[in-house]
Amino acid sequence: MSSEISTNTDQGLQPWQFFVLAGLGCATAVLFVARGRGVAAIVLLSLVIAATALIGLAALRTFKPLVSPEDDRTVMYGHRTRVALEREKLLALRSIKELEFDRAMGKLSDADWREMSGRLRARATRLMRQLDAGSGYREAIERDLAARLAETPLPKAPPACAVCATVNDPDARFCKGCGGKL
Questions:
Q1: Which residues form the domain of 172?
Q2: Which residue in 4, 103, 156, 176 has the most C-beta neighbors within 10 A?
Q3: What is the pLDDT of residue 119?
């Protein structure tokens, strides 16, 4: 998905604009109908129209994702999100740790441990590969790292004592070898 801004302006009437226009039209009709009935009736009817328009907007916002062809922006791997895969990986690794603890405590035989550990390790490996596949994170991380390294100045060499030639910390004021002032 591209991050560039869309400048397409011939999209026509949007659904939310219909509710706003319908609310304004109904409010205008209420003003003409309730002209001689007093201010309270006009205010109440206008509030009812506004509330109806807001309920329509809320319903539109609720049901639009169910019927719109727009892609969901959540990164999916297979039929699951990255968060779900990370959670499943964490649970698999935790299960391996508990399994090893049970074996060390003598609650599990070696044959059972090998079988269960093999299945859990295969599952964790499969999840890690699924998380790493197609994500493109490595390239993004390398670009980000290169940019940060380019903008960060190199640290200056730690000071060495002129008397005993001991290398000191960069923020040191006195030599840690002889105690002389740097």
A1: 157-182
A2: 103
A3: 94
What span, in angstroms and rounded, lies between the C-alpha atoms of 138 and 140?
5
Q: Please indicate, yes or no, whether residues 80 and 127 belong to a single structural domain of this protein.
A: yes
Whole-number CA gyration radius for the chain: 33
Of 170, 85, 10, 168, the closest CA to residue 180 belongs to: 168
Residue 1 has pLDDT above 50, yes or no: no
Q: What is the pLDDT of residues 44-100, one digit of tens each?
A: 887 888 888 888 888 888 888 777 766 555 555 556 677 888 899 999 999 999 999
3 found inside a domain = no
Domain assignment of residue 7, yes or no: no
What are the percentages of helix, strand and coil residues in the chain, rounded to 5? Answer: 60, 5, 35
Residue 164 in any domain: the answer is yes
Alpha carbons 30 and 49: distance in angstroms, whole number: 9
HSE at residue 62, side-chain half, CA atoms within 13 A, is 6
Give the number of domains in the chain. 3
Tokens, residue 151: 């903008």
Structural domain contains residue 21: yes
